[in-house]
Amino acid sequence: MNELLKRYRVEAQNENSLREVREMIIAPDTLTVFDFDHTMFKTSIFHRMSFQGVLHALGRSLEITPELGAKLKGGGDEEIFEILLDASGGTDKNLLLRAINERKKILIQAVKADGDLAAYFMPGIPDAIRSLRACGKKVGIASASPDGFVQEFVARVSVDGVNINDVFISDAIIGGTTVRSVHNSLSVDSDSPSSLNKPNPFSIRYSANKISGEQGFPILYIGDGRVDALSVRGNQNMVGLIVNAEEHDSLRKEFERDENIIVVGSIGEVLNAK
Q1: CATH 3.40.50.1000 for the 3-42+121-271 domain, yes or no
Q2: Are 219 and 239 in contact (CB under 8 A)?
Q3: Is 229:258 a contact under the CB 8 Å cutoff?
Q4: Could you give the CA distance from residue 226 to residue 237 in angstroms, rounded to a whole number?
Q5: Class of 44-113 per CATH?
Q6: Strand, coil or helix: what is 177?
Q7: Is the distance from CB of 171 to CB of 210 less than 8 angstroms?
Q8: What pTM was estimated for this model as a whole?
Protein backbone atom coordinates (compact mmCIF):
# COMPACT_ATOMS: atom_id res chain seq x y z
CA MET A 1 0.00 0.00 0.00
CA ASN A 2 1.25 3.53 -0.79
CA GLU A 3 2.92 4.95 2.34
CA LEU A 4 1.10 8.29 2.09
CA LEU A 5 -2.24 6.53 1.99
CA LYS A 6 -1.26 4.28 4.89
CA ARG A 7 -0.22 7.29 7.00
CA TYR A 8 -3.38 9.17 6.09
CA ARG A 9 -5.64 6.28 7.01
CA VAL A 10 -4.14 6.01 10.48
CA GLU A 11 -4.05 9.70 11.30
CA ALA A 12 -7.36 10.69 9.70
CA GLN A 13 -9.23 8.81 12.41
CA ASN A 14 -8.09 11.40 14.93
CA GLU A 15 -10.31 14.44 15.48
CA ASN A 16 -7.28 16.72 15.22
CA SER A 17 -5.90 15.33 11.96
CA LEU A 18 -7.70 17.52 9.41
CA ARG A 19 -4.36 19.10 8.59
CA GLU A 20 -3.33 15.75 7.12
CA VAL A 21 -6.48 15.70 5.01
CA ARG A 22 -5.69 19.20 3.73
CA GLU A 23 -2.19 18.15 2.80
CA MET A 24 -3.52 15.16 0.89
CA ILE A 25 -5.79 17.41 -1.22
CA ILE A 26 -2.79 19.30 -2.61
CA ALA A 27 -0.10 16.62 -2.29
CA PRO A 28 1.74 15.97 -5.57
CA ASP A 29 1.67 12.21 -4.96
CA THR A 30 -2.12 11.91 -4.77
CA LEU A 31 -4.71 12.12 -7.55
CA THR A 32 -7.56 14.37 -6.45
CA VAL A 33 -10.98 13.88 -8.05
CA PHE A 34 -14.10 15.93 -7.22
CA ASP A 35 -17.75 15.05 -7.52
CA PHE A 36 -19.58 17.89 -9.31
CA ASP A 37 -23.23 18.26 -8.29
CA HIS A 38 -23.71 19.46 -4.70
CA THR A 39 -19.98 19.07 -4.02
CA MET A 40 -18.63 21.84 -6.27
CA PHE A 41 -21.83 23.59 -7.33
CA LYS A 42 -25.47 23.84 -6.27
CA THR A 43 -26.97 22.50 -9.49
CA SER A 44 -30.40 21.22 -8.42
CA ILE A 45 -32.17 24.05 -10.22
CA PHE A 46 -30.52 23.10 -13.52
CA HIS A 47 -31.37 19.42 -13.21
CA ARG A 48 -34.96 19.92 -12.11
CA MET A 49 -35.53 22.39 -14.93
CA SER A 50 -34.00 20.07 -17.53
CA PHE A 51 -35.98 17.00 -16.48
CA GLN A 52 -39.20 19.02 -16.33
CA GLY A 53 -38.37 20.56 -19.72
CA VAL A 54 -37.87 17.15 -21.33
CA LEU A 55 -41.15 15.84 -19.97
CA HIS A 56 -42.93 18.93 -21.32
CA ALA A 57 -41.29 18.50 -24.74
CA LEU A 58 -42.48 14.90 -24.83
CA GLY A 59 -46.00 15.89 -23.89
CA ARG A 60 -45.80 14.29 -20.48
CA SER A 61 -47.33 15.68 -17.32
CA LEU A 62 -45.45 14.87 -14.15
CA GLU A 63 -44.39 17.21 -11.37
CA ILE A 64 -40.93 16.48 -10.03
CA THR A 65 -41.52 17.05 -6.33
CA PRO A 66 -38.65 17.37 -3.85
CA GLU A 67 -39.48 13.84 -2.68
CA LEU A 68 -39.22 12.44 -6.21
CA GLY A 69 -36.09 14.50 -6.81
CA ALA A 70 -34.43 12.88 -3.80
CA LYS A 71 -35.02 9.43 -5.31
CA LEU A 72 -33.39 10.52 -8.56
CA LYS A 73 -30.25 11.99 -6.99
CA GLY A 74 -27.06 10.26 -8.03
CA GLY A 75 -28.61 8.21 -10.80
CA GLY A 76 -27.51 8.18 -14.42
CA ASP A 77 -29.74 9.74 -17.08
CA GLU A 78 -30.90 6.33 -18.32
CA GLU A 79 -31.95 5.25 -14.85
CA ILE A 80 -33.65 8.58 -14.07
CA PHE A 81 -35.61 8.79 -17.31
CA GLU A 82 -36.76 5.21 -16.97
CA ILE A 83 -38.33 6.25 -13.65
CA LEU A 84 -39.79 9.51 -14.95
CA LEU A 85 -41.12 8.16 -18.23
CA ASP A 86 -42.59 5.04 -16.65
CA ALA A 87 -44.31 7.23 -14.07
CA SER A 88 -45.79 9.47 -16.76
CA GLY A 89 -47.02 7.01 -19.36
CA GLY A 90 -44.36 4.44 -20.25
CA THR A 91 -41.17 4.34 -22.31
CA ASP A 92 -39.12 2.46 -24.89
CA LYS A 93 -35.48 2.61 -26.03
CA ASN A 94 -36.07 5.24 -28.72
CA LEU A 95 -37.99 7.52 -26.37
CA LEU A 96 -35.34 7.05 -23.70
CA LEU A 97 -32.56 8.07 -26.11
CA ARG A 98 -34.56 11.08 -27.28
CA ALA A 99 -35.09 12.20 -23.68
CA ILE A 100 -31.39 11.89 -22.86
CA ASN A 101 -30.33 13.92 -25.89
CA GLU A 102 -32.95 16.60 -25.23
CA ARG A 103 -31.77 16.98 -21.63
CA LYS A 104 -28.19 17.59 -22.76
CA LYS A 105 -29.36 20.40 -25.04
CA ILE A 106 -31.48 22.01 -22.31
CA LEU A 107 -28.67 21.86 -19.74
CA ILE A 108 -26.05 23.42 -22.01
CA GLN A 109 -28.44 26.13 -23.13
CA ALA A 110 -29.22 26.96 -19.51
CA VAL A 111 -25.52 27.20 -18.62
CA LYS A 112 -24.81 29.47 -21.58
CA ALA A 113 -27.75 31.71 -20.68
CA ASP A 114 -26.73 32.15 -17.02
CA GLY A 115 -24.50 35.15 -16.51
CA ASP A 116 -23.35 34.38 -12.97
CA LEU A 117 -22.45 30.71 -12.61
CA ALA A 118 -20.04 31.54 -9.79
CA ALA A 119 -23.12 32.20 -7.65
CA TYR A 120 -23.68 28.44 -7.55
CA PHE A 121 -20.36 27.57 -5.88
CA MET A 122 -20.72 25.41 -2.79
CA PRO A 123 -19.19 27.04 0.32
CA GLY A 124 -15.43 26.73 0.48
CA ILE A 125 -14.91 25.52 -3.09
CA PRO A 126 -13.36 28.81 -4.35
CA ASP A 127 -10.83 28.57 -1.50
CA ALA A 128 -10.10 24.96 -2.42
CA ILE A 129 -9.46 26.02 -6.02
CA ARG A 130 -7.13 28.78 -4.82
CA SER A 131 -5.16 26.22 -2.79
CA LEU A 132 -4.91 23.85 -5.75
CA ARG A 133 -3.93 26.68 -8.08
CA ALA A 134 -1.25 27.95 -5.69
CA CYS A 135 0.56 24.61 -5.72
CA GLY A 136 -0.01 23.99 -9.44
CA LYS A 137 -2.01 20.82 -8.90
CA LYS A 138 -4.30 19.52 -11.66
CA VAL A 139 -7.41 17.58 -10.67
CA GLY A 140 -10.38 15.78 -12.20
CA ILE A 141 -14.15 15.47 -11.88
CA ALA A 142 -16.28 12.32 -11.78
CA SER A 143 -19.98 13.08 -12.17
CA ALA A 144 -23.22 11.35 -13.12
CA SER A 145 -24.25 14.47 -15.07
CA PRO A 146 -23.68 14.66 -18.84
CA ASP A 147 -20.06 15.46 -19.72
CA GLY A 148 -21.05 18.43 -21.89
CA PHE A 149 -22.95 20.09 -19.04
CA VAL A 150 -20.06 19.76 -16.58
CA GLN A 151 -17.44 20.83 -19.12
CA GLU A 152 -19.48 23.85 -20.23
CA PHE A 153 -20.03 24.87 -16.61
CA VAL A 154 -16.32 24.62 -15.76
CA ALA A 155 -15.36 26.50 -18.92
CA ARG A 156 -17.52 29.47 -17.89
CA VAL A 157 -16.62 29.87 -14.20
CA SER A 158 -13.76 31.90 -12.79
CA VAL A 159 -12.14 32.40 -9.41
CA ASP A 160 -10.27 35.69 -8.96
CA GLY A 161 -10.73 36.45 -12.64
CA VAL A 162 -9.07 33.23 -13.82
CA ASN A 163 -11.08 30.40 -15.36
CA ILE A 164 -11.05 27.28 -13.21
CA ASN A 165 -10.16 25.05 -16.15
CA ASP A 166 -6.56 25.89 -15.30
CA VAL A 167 -7.06 23.48 -12.39
CA PHE A 168 -9.60 20.99 -13.75
CA ILE A 169 -8.25 19.01 -16.69
CA SER A 170 -10.78 18.79 -19.51
CA ASP A 171 -9.89 15.19 -20.36
CA ALA A 172 -10.31 14.25 -16.70
CA ILE A 173 -13.89 15.58 -16.49
CA ILE A 174 -15.80 12.31 -16.62
CA GLY A 175 -19.58 12.40 -16.76
CA GLY A 176 -22.49 10.10 -17.44
CA THR A 177 -22.01 10.36 -21.21
CA THR A 178 -18.55 8.80 -20.98
CA VAL A 179 -19.71 6.15 -18.54
CA ARG A 180 -22.52 5.15 -20.89
CA SER A 181 -20.19 5.09 -23.90
CA VAL A 182 -17.60 2.93 -22.15
CA HIS A 183 -20.30 0.66 -20.79
CA ASN A 184 -21.67 0.09 -24.29
CA SER A 185 -18.19 -0.55 -25.69
CA LEU A 186 -17.65 -3.23 -23.06
CA SER A 187 -20.92 -4.89 -24.06
CA VAL A 188 -21.59 -6.08 -20.56
CA ASP A 189 -24.76 -5.97 -18.52
CA SER A 190 -26.62 -4.59 -21.55
CA ASP A 191 -29.87 -4.58 -19.60
CA SER A 192 -28.38 -2.36 -16.93
CA PRO A 193 -26.89 0.75 -18.62
CA SER A 194 -26.12 2.48 -15.34
CA SER A 195 -24.01 -0.37 -13.93
CA LEU A 196 -20.79 1.65 -14.23
CA ASN A 197 -22.28 4.69 -12.48
CA LYS A 198 -21.45 5.42 -8.87
CA PRO A 199 -21.34 3.76 -6.39
CA ASN A 200 -19.25 1.77 -8.87
CA PRO A 201 -15.84 3.54 -8.58
CA PHE A 202 -15.26 3.26 -12.34
CA SER A 203 -15.71 6.98 -13.14
CA ILE A 204 -13.44 8.01 -10.26
CA ARG A 205 -10.64 5.72 -11.40
CA TYR A 206 -11.18 6.74 -15.04
CA SER A 207 -10.82 10.42 -14.14
CA ALA A 208 -7.74 9.73 -11.99
CA ASN A 209 -6.17 7.83 -14.86
CA LYS A 210 -6.69 10.87 -17.12
CA ILE A 211 -4.86 13.06 -14.59
CA SER A 212 -1.91 10.68 -14.61
CA GLY A 213 -1.50 7.59 -16.73
CA GLU A 214 0.79 6.11 -14.09
CA GLN A 215 -0.69 3.49 -11.79
CA GLY A 216 -0.30 3.16 -8.03
CA PHE A 217 -0.93 6.72 -6.86
CA PRO A 218 -3.54 7.02 -4.09
CA ILE A 219 -6.79 8.69 -5.09
CA LEU A 220 -8.55 11.29 -2.94
CA TYR A 221 -12.20 11.57 -3.95
CA ILE A 222 -14.19 14.55 -2.64
CA GLY A 223 -17.96 14.05 -2.63
CA ASP A 224 -21.04 15.07 -0.69
CA GLY A 225 -23.22 12.08 0.10
CA ARG A 226 -23.81 8.42 0.80
CA VAL A 227 -23.37 7.30 -2.81
CA ASP A 228 -19.97 9.01 -2.88
CA ALA A 229 -18.92 7.27 0.34
CA LEU A 230 -20.06 3.90 -1.01
CA SER A 231 -18.02 4.57 -4.15
CA VAL A 232 -14.76 4.42 -2.21
CA ARG A 233 -15.73 1.94 0.50
CA GLY A 234 -13.43 -1.05 0.42
CA ASN A 235 -11.10 0.42 -2.21
CA GLN A 236 -7.63 0.24 -0.67
CA ASN A 237 -6.10 2.87 -2.91
CA MET A 238 -8.86 5.46 -2.35
CA VAL A 239 -9.78 7.90 0.38
CA GLY A 240 -13.17 9.57 0.42
CA LEU A 241 -13.65 13.06 1.87
CA ILE A 242 -17.40 13.55 2.26
CA VAL A 243 -18.49 17.17 2.78
CA ASN A 244 -22.08 17.52 3.95
CA ALA A 245 -23.39 20.03 6.47
CA GLU A 246 -26.98 18.76 6.62
CA GLU A 247 -26.29 15.02 6.95
CA HIS A 248 -22.92 15.23 8.66
CA ASP A 249 -23.92 13.39 11.84
CA SER A 250 -25.78 10.53 10.17
CA LEU A 251 -23.10 9.99 7.53
CA ARG A 252 -20.32 10.04 10.07
CA LYS A 253 -22.13 7.46 12.17
CA GLU A 254 -22.81 5.20 9.17
CA PHE A 255 -19.20 5.25 7.98
CA GLU A 256 -17.34 5.59 11.26
CA ARG A 257 -15.82 2.11 10.88
CA ASP A 258 -14.55 2.80 7.36
CA GLU A 259 -10.93 3.81 7.76
CA ASN A 260 -10.74 5.41 4.31
CA ILE A 261 -13.87 7.59 4.58
CA ILE A 262 -13.75 10.97 6.33
CA VAL A 263 -16.91 13.03 6.90
CA VAL A 264 -16.83 16.77 7.59
CA GLY A 265 -19.48 19.49 7.71
CA SER A 266 -17.61 21.87 5.40
CA ILE A 267 -14.47 21.82 3.30
CA GLY A 268 -13.43 24.91 5.24
CA GLU A 269 -12.82 22.66 8.25
CA VAL A 270 -10.12 20.97 6.21
CA LEU A 271 -8.65 23.99 4.43
CA ASN A 272 -8.38 26.00 7.65
CA ALA A 273 -7.05 23.19 9.83
CA LYS A 274 -4.03 24.22 11.90
Answers
A1: yes
A2: yes
A3: yes
A4: 19
A5: mainly alpha
A6: helix
A7: yes
A8: 0.89
